[in-house]
Amino acid sequence: MSNTFLADDGTIRCSWCQATEQYIDYHDNEWGYPVADDQTLFEKICLEGFQSGLSWYTILVKRENFRKAFANFDFDQVASFTQQDVERLVVNAGIIRHRGKITATINNAKRAQDLIKEFGSLASYFWQFEPKRDESLDPEILATCPESVALSKDLKKRGWKFVGPTTMYAFMQAMGMVNDHALTCVGHEKSRQLRLALVRP
Known about the structure:
Layout: E1 4-6, E2 12-14, H1 21-29, H2 38-51, H3 56-69, H4 75-79, H5 83-90, H6 99-119, H7 122-126, H8 146-157, H9 165-174, H10 186-197
Antiparallel strand pairs: 1-2
Helix pairs in contact: 2-3, 2-6, 2-9, 8-9
């Protein structure tokens, strides 16, 4: 099965994104492009946790609702959420009403504050787990990698929740820590150039 497809607009893209317009937009504008902004990183890691066991489409169509519900993923605000906020969120039909994932997000906001105290930024912490790869080769189709396993283990030790190795690999893909666009995909070279230009924190 091919890892790319030729879209109606004449563009070659990764085959996974052809299912919906939302996937194409996400693929073209976000997935695999490096992020060093702490609030965006926190949003991405939280949404990957909510996605666990569900399709990414479910998360994409609810993303604006998640942003409203969780103060645009401002972790300082989310860290101050109370039990009253948990009860409010559990009945919010616009998001995934999973009590464990909701409480994990509030917990993880507090743990994010801890990381910033220690490392100066979330970006400084996360980017130290960047795998070393040859981007001239087609990426392997992976569910985890040694670095995502290490990241998961370290975050769990620090008290984070819903950060298993597979979830952390999806997070690494989403934040552009790895360039998993197929070699012939239009996004591969864009990701490569952006990753080259990125000043690692």
